Amino acid sequence: MSVIKPSLAKGTRDFSPVEMVKRNFIYDTIKTVFKKYGYAEIQTPSFENLSTLTGKYGDEGDKLIFKILNSGEFLKDPKKKSFDFAEEDNSNKLISLISEKALRYDLTVPFARYVVMHQNDITLPFKRFQVQPVWRADRPQKGRYREFYQCDVDVVGSDSLLNEAEFILIYNEALGKLGLKDFSIKINNRKILSGIAEIIGKPDLIIDMTVAIDKLDKIGLDGVSKELLERGFTEQDLEKLRPVILLEGSNDEKLASLKEVLASSETGLKGIAEIEQVFGYVESLIAYSLPLTAKLELDITLARGLNYYTGCIFEVKTNEVAMGSIGGGGRYDDLTGMFGLKDLTGVGVSFGADRIYDVLEELNLFPAAAEVGTKVLISNFDAEAEKYALPILQQFRNAGIATELYPTSAKLKKQMAYADAKNIPYVILIGGDEMTSGELTLKDMQSGEQKKLTVLGILDLMK
Amino acid sequence: MSVIKPSLAKGTRDFSPVEMVKRNFIYDTIKTVFKKYGYAEIQTPSFENLSTLTGKYGDEGDKLIFKILNSGEFLKDPKKKSFDFAEEDNSNKLISLISEKALRYDLTVPFARYVVMHQNDITLPFKRFQVQPVWRADRPQKGRYREFYQCDVDVVGSDSLLNEAEFILIYNEALGKLGLKDFSIKINNRKILSGIAEIIGKPDLIIDMTVAIDKLDKIGLDGVSKELLERGFTEQDLEKLRPVILLEGSNDEKLASLKEVLASSETGLKGIAEIEQVFGYVESLIAYSLPLTAKLELDITLARGLNYYTGCIFEVKTNEVAMGSIGGGGRYDDLTGMFGLKDLTGVGVSFGADRIYDVLEELNLFPAAAEVGTKVLISNFDAEAEKYALPILQQFRNAGIATELYPTSAKLKKQMAYADAKNIPYVILIGGDEMTSGELTLKDMQSGEQKKLTVLGILDLMK
Fold first, then answer.
1. Where is the Aminoacyl-transfer RNA synthetases class-II family profile domain (chains A, B) (predicted)?
2. Domain residue limits at A233
3. Which residue in the set B55, B160, B402 is minimally distant from A38, CB to CB?
4. Is B91 on the interface with A (CB under 8 A)?
C-alpha cells in the first residue's frame, strides 16, 4: 500500500479537544435554555432520499446539495448501456441513473418530513430543537465551510404569538449566558411590509421594495432611492416610502407613526397589532424578573426569508464585534405543504453557532472552566511511586475529579510539559518523602505554588 | 411542485424526543466517565477524501463506503467524452471520474489521519474520545443500520499497560452507571494466541486456529476440532490444542496452566505477563474503592481484530440479555503507518451504543428522569388567566425548571392530553379562585393528587 500524505476534504474541519470543549459550551448553553422553554430534541438522518430534498431550495440550492452515489455495483444493470459525456445537461441525467440520496442541506426540510411522517405520534403544538451538521457544496472561504452545524428551534401547530415572545426571551437568555453583553434582537413583520407595498399601490413589488430598503445600512437613503427607481417605483412612491424607511425613535414611537401611515391597510395594521402583542407578552413575562439584556428593536428594513415567512421576522446581531447576524427566524404558514400536509403554521429561530464561536473567541468570553479537561495529573517517577499512586488515582476519580496518572515513569520535565500542554491545573508530585510522610506535594500550575497535603486534604481543596 | 409522500432513506432512522433523551443519557454517562479518566473529545468531518479511506477496510469494506458525487457540473470537463456502461469493472472506473470524497466508514481511520496531520500540536500520550455517526452501505436488517454512532476511546503514544487496566475500569464504571448489574469483560492477548500457534509448530496458521476456536461457544469442541482439521491442523496438533481450548477455572488457574503450556514460547510468556500486569494494575487501582461490578475473565478463545491487534484484546458482554458484544477493543502497534507515521502504538476500546440502548430498554433501566423534558405545564383558560400566568411562567424558568404555558386558551381536556403526551409530571391550574386567592392548584399527573399552593410553595416543592 502506497503511503498518502493525508489531508482534509476541502471545506471541512477537524475539531481539537480545546475547540470541542468550547463548541460544547455553546451547544450545551443553548440546549439548556431550549429545554427550559419546553423544547425537546430530535435528530434526523444525515442523508435523505434525493426526492425529499430536490426542488426545495431553488435551482441554486439544488446545485449545492451533495449527492451520494448508489452503493455496490451501481452500474451493473443500468438503464442505458453507454453514456455520452458531451451531451447537454449530462450531469443531471447521469445523476438520476447513479444517485438516489443526498446529504441534508438544512434542518428545515428534514423537520418538515419528520412532522409529516410522524404526524400521528406528535401532539400539537410540537416544540422541537435540532442541533446537527448540514452540508453544502459551496466554494469554501473564510468562515464558510462545506460542513457546519445548524441549531434550530421551532414550534409547529400553534399560532399563538406567545411563541414569538418566548423566542425573544430564549435569545436573550442563551446569548446572555454565553457572556454577550450588548446585542440586538431586531423584529419586523411580513404583514407590515405587505401593508407598505399596498399603500403605495405596488403590492406585487414587495420583494423589490424590501430588497432595496434592506440595504439602507450599506448604501444610504440615496442609494436605496436610486435602486427603488430602477426596480419600478416612481418619485411619487418614494415620497410615501421615505418616512417609513427613515422611521426613528423608540419602538412605541415607530409603531405610532406606522399606524398613521398604514391606517388604510388592513394587513399592515394586523402586522402592527402582532408586533404590539409580542412586545406585550415580553413585558408581562419579565414583569417579576430581570429586564432584557438584549435591545429589542422594531426594524422595518429587516426583510429576510420573505418567500417563506408570513408574520414576525427576527434577526440577532452583536454590537460588540463586527459580524453578520448571529441568529434569525420567523413565522411561516406552510411548513409541510411540500409533503402534502397543508396549513401547518409554525415559528422558529436558529443560532449561528460558528459565528457565535468567533464572537466569544474575539471577546475572550469562553470561561476558563471551558478549557479544563483533566483537573489533576499525578506524577510517575518509578515503579514504587506508581504503585503508591494507583489507589489514590482512583480515589480522586471516585470523587468525580478528572484525574490522570502519568502512564510511565518519566523525568519531571516531561511530565510537566504534558500537564502544560493539556492545561491541567494541578499536579501531585509523589517522591520518597511523600510516600514516607503521606503528605503529597500539590503544585498549582497557574501560580507555581506548592504545598504539602494529605490525599483527603487535596480532595477537600478540590471541592 | 408535485407532492411526494415522504419516506426515510433505506437503513436510516429518525430519533424522537423520547429516544433522544435516552440516547443522550447513554452518551452523557459514557462521556462523563471518559473525561474522569483524562480523555478529551475530538470530532472529525463527516466526509474524507476518498484516498484517505480507500484500501483501509479490505475489498469488502471498500464496497460499503458511501461515495459522494463531485459537486457542480462535475461532468463538464471529463477526462473521457463518453463512458461505456457495459465495460468490465465499469463502476470503479466511473467512480474515479466523478467522486473524490466519501462518508466516513469508522472513527479509526479518521483518527489516524487526525493524529498524523496534527502531530506537531499533539502531546503524547494523546488520550481522545470520539462519538460520531458512521455510514456503511450494508444491506439494512434488524439492528443493522446504514447510519449509526460509534463511541471510541483511544490513547496513542503510550505502551503502558496502565491504559489497558483503565479501560477495564472505564467499562466497569460506565456500564455500571448505566444500570447494568451482570456483565463480563473478557480479555485475551494476541501474544498468547501467537504462542499457542508457535508451540504446535504452526505459527502461520494463527488466524485459521483462532477463527476455529472462537466458535467453541457455538459449535462445541467436536465442531472446532473438525474445523481445525479442515484448516490444516493434524490430530497431533489437536492433542496439544485441546487443553488450551478447554482451559477452565479462575483467571489465576488459567494463567498457571498457560504458563506450563507456553513455557517454551517467549512470545506466549510475554502475553501472559502482560495480562498479569493488567490484572495487577486493576487490583491496585481499586484497592481503596469499590470492587469491580464486572466479571473480568481471561478467555483465550477471544480473537477479534487479529489482523490489527498486537497485545491485549477486549470484549464486553451482558449476561442479563441475549445480545452480541456491547463493546470491545485492543492494543495496536501501528495506527498511523498507513499515513506514513510509523510505530505509533496505542490501545482503544469502543462502546456499542445502539446495542446498549436495546439492553437498557429490555431491562427497563432508563431512569424515569431520562423521560422528563418539560416539568411543569401551566394551564391557559382565558386571556385574564394567561396574563396572570405570564410572570409566573418566567419565575419558574428563572428557577431552572423547564416550564411551559399552554400557548392558547383551550379546554382542560385538551391541555391535559398535551401534558400526558409529553409526559409532563405537573400541571398548574389557574382559574378565577386561584387568581383571587393567589393559591394555585398543582396537579400531580402520576398520582392524580391536587393541592393548593402559592407560587413560592410550588417552587419549594420542585427543589
1. 1-391
2. 17-44+105-363
3. B402
4. yes
